[in-house]
Design brief:
Number of strands: 20
Low-confidence stretches: 49-54, 207-212, 245-249
Helix content: 10-25%
Number of helices: 2
Order of helices and strands: HEEEEEEEEEEEEEHEEEEEEE
Radius of gyration: 25 Å
Largest sheet: 8 strands, antiparallel
Distance between the termini: 93 Å
């Protein structure tokens, strides 16, 4: 009788522990983290154009306003990018997203493709080896490079810059001539393009470029904090370039020449006042490559240490910049 009681107790304890672990794992799986909807900025490199050295172009995707479409609540996503000719900042409605925390899915209306219908962008209620239809990544104009049917190759875990752990899905296409990967991070978006197909045909800055590389996400910033940073090498400083709009000087009072330059660059300000000013240069991935303070109204700066290519320059005064394009010739 005692032997039976002990065995029965052990079995009961084992069942209890097993049930506890199952419940714990189930709860852990239910801790879905949606995309951020407030003060969120995705920075994406969206192509490379011809030239030596090649130059990349960067876009921002920013959550800004709410809307009701198809009797559903959506968050609007706006794209900011630089006009390649004038370097003016362009702001356009890019997409509207709707999130379902219960089903762990994200839906999108792709305004940048002039669509009004809803498509499935992300699904985290799937397992390894599942087949999933994510029609937000398909575009019938470019069927060789986009697809809507994916196989879930694997699901693992990634640690973000804020030390939070998120699920990461590794998918592969089924209908393209060669299998193309798709990597989606929970609460972040696609590694290639967070809001749809990563194809050069939708690159507004260099739409006819013959030399282009895949799009990829450089960083996600929420409430000013870098949540995701690609390979820890991007500081997202492109943010201040694309979102700053107040000029510190009238265009007629500022002269910058020569442009293109092969080294020496002159800054001349037509003003009777002198004050501290800041001169900065960024490459087209948003990395700061030069930083210089000056007080004079007429100064020449040697840029001979920079590689040939296209850059963005800013002159700061009173916390607001004026932004220009600069070409450094060989």
């Amino acid at each position: 009788m005692k032997h039976y009681t002990i065995s029965h107790s052990i079995i009961s304890l084992t069942l209890f522990i097993s049930l506890f672990l199952i419940i714990q794992n189930t709860l852990k799986c239910q801790e879905y983290i949606p995309l951020p909807e407030n003060n969120a900025v995705w920075t994406e490199m969206n192509g490379i154009y011809e030239g030596f050295p090649p130059q990349s172009w960067t876009s921002l995707f920013i959550t800004e306003t709410d809307t009701t479409l198809l009797d559903q609540f959506y968050k609007n996503i706006y794209e900011y990018y630089l006009n390649p000719s004038t370097f003016d900042t362009i702001r356009e409605l890019y997409a509207s997203i709707r999130q379902d925390a219960i089903t762990e899915r994200v839906y999108i209306i792709r305004h940048y493709l002039n669509e009004t219908n809803e498509r499935l962008l992300m699904d985290f209620n799937i397992q390894t080896s599942d087949t999933v239809i994510l029609d937000a990544y398909f575009w019938d104009i470019d069927p060789l490079n986009t697809d809507s049917i994916f196989i879930v190759d694997s699901i693992s875990e990634i640690t973000l810059n804020n030390n939070q752990k998120r699920r990461i899905q590794y998918l592969s296409t089924q209908n393209t001539p060669f299998p193309k990967p798709q990597i989606i991070i929970e609460g972040v978006g696609s590694f290639f393009n967070p809001f749809g197909p990563a194809t050069n045909l939708v690159n507004k800055q260099q739409p006819k470029s013959s030399f282009c590389c895949p799009h990829f996400l450089l960083c996600l910033t929420v409430e000013g904090e870098n949540i995701y940073v690609h390979k820890n090498e991007t500081d997202c400083s492109i943010l201040q370039i694309l979102t700053s709009t107040k000029p510190i000087l009238q265009e007629t009072t500022l002269s910058l020449y020569p442009n293109p330059t092969n080294g020496l660059y002159r800054i001349k300000i037509n003003s009777e006042y002198t004050q501290e000013r800041l001169f900065e240069i960024y490459d087209l991935m948003g990395r700061k490559v030069l930083h210089r303070k000056f007080y004079q109204n007429d100064i020449t700066i040697d840029l001979g240490s920079l590689n040939p290519g296209t850059y963005i320059i800013q002159i700061w005064c009173d916390d607001t910049p004026i932004t220009k394009k600069l070409i450094i010739s060989p």
